[in-house]
Write a structure and sequence with these properties.
The chain contains 12 helices and 11 strands. By secondary structure, the chain is of the alpha/beta class. It has 3 domains: about 80 residues, Orthogonal Bundle (Arc Repressor Mutant, subunit A), CATH 1.10.10.10; about 100 residues, 3-Layer(aba) Sandwich (D-Maltodextrin-Binding Protein, domain 2); about 100 residues, 3-Layer(aba) Sandwich (D-Maltodextrin-Binding Protein, domain 2). Strands 3, 4, 5, 6, 9, 10 and 11 form a 7-stranded mixed β-sheet that branches. Strands 1-2 form a two-stranded antiparallel sheet. The chain has a two-stranded parallel sheet with strand order 7-8. Strand 1 and strand 2 form a beta hairpin. Helix 1 crosses helix 3 and helix 1 packs across helix 4. It is rod-shaped and about 110 Å long.
């Protein structure tokens, strides 16, 4: 039984005339007759009395008519759901982002998305870069935005923005010169392994000729805010996104150590083989326009 067969049956039942139904639906009379015959033969019932040149519904036809109408109505509702989904009038966008991005970089774009598509719900999960990649690979989310390159052949990744790490300390008396000896001797407050911020810092230190294993690490904390607060309390130095430390630098509770670490990229992540929804496409469009 097909929706087209139901549609043709309803048209004939409402008009009690095969030719009139075929004209109304712009199909051939033989197609209408074949659809009715298929329904009757498949289920072993007669849906119409053939009386001369006219037709009338049988008892089975009368019972079947409201059910057929209900099925077509539900099909129309289902079709409307897909149209609304593709037109971004409903649905849910699931995004995972690493901490710096979720707290300081992405919200502006999410606000723009919400204004443009108010009927699409947004679910944002916040974790470190390594865990974010796992969620994208496992299909738990539609998109990820992270702070470092991810080594996973199942994932497509591309740059979506840039950032800079800043070495900071609470002591306003900054060193006259920062060299590798000073960096090795300093007491460091670090993000946890798997963090994009930590991975970027370690890459930058290697470029300076410093093995991260040689650092004097006093604390390892699982959030930017934890690292920043510990440094403000005098626990040592650390490296965080310029987005994270800007308010503290302006307030004078932290001070930037004169050692450039270069810029880093933020990366979009998606599974190469999974369907990318219209909502995901729309968010990526906003992200791309932000980066231009």
């Amino acid at each position: 039984m097909t929706l087209e067969q139901l549609r043709l049956f309803i048209a004939v039942a409402e008009r009690e005339h095969v030719t009139a139904a075929s004209r109304a639906l712009n199909v051939t009379q033989s197609a209408v007759s074949a659809a009715i015959a298929t329904l009757e033969e498949r289920h072993g019932v007669k849906l119409f009395h053939r009386i001369g040149r006219g037709i009338r519904l049988t008892e089975a036809g009368r019972l079947f008519l409201p059910e057929a109408r209900a099925v077509l109505a539900r099909a129309a509702v289902a079709e409307n759901v897909l149209e609304e989904f593709s037109g971004l009038k409903r649905g849910t966008l699931r995004v995972v982002a690493s901490q710096t991005i979720a707290a300081y970089w992405l919200p502006v774009t999410l606000v723009a998305f919400r204004r443009a598509y108010p009927h699409v719900a947004i679910e944002l999960a916040i974790t470190n870069t390594e865990e974010a990649a796992t969620r994208v690979r496992d299909g738990d989310v539609d998109l990820g935005i992270v702070e470092a390159i991810v080594d996973d052949p199942a994932l497509a990744q591309w740059p979506v923005g840039t950032d800079r790490l800043t070495i900071i300390q609470a002591d306003p008396c900054l060193p006259a010169m920062v060299d590798t000896h000073w960096l090795r001797a300093a007491s460091w407050v670090m993000r946890e392994p798997g963090s994009g911020t930590r991975a970027t810092l370690e890459d930058s230190l290697r470029q300076l000729g410093i093995d991260p294993a040689d650092l004097n690490v006093s604390l390892v904390l699982p959030s930017n805010e934890g690292v920043r607060t510990a440094i403000e309390a005098g626990a040592g130095i650390g490296a965080l996104s310029s987005l994270v430390v800007a308010p503290a630098l302006q307030a004078g509770t932290l001070h930037a150590v004169p050692q450039a670490l270069g810029t880093r990229s933020f990366y979009g992540l998606r599974h190469k083989e999974r369907y990318r929804s219209p909502a995901a496409e729309a968010l990526l469009g906003l992200v791309a326009r932000r980066g231009t």
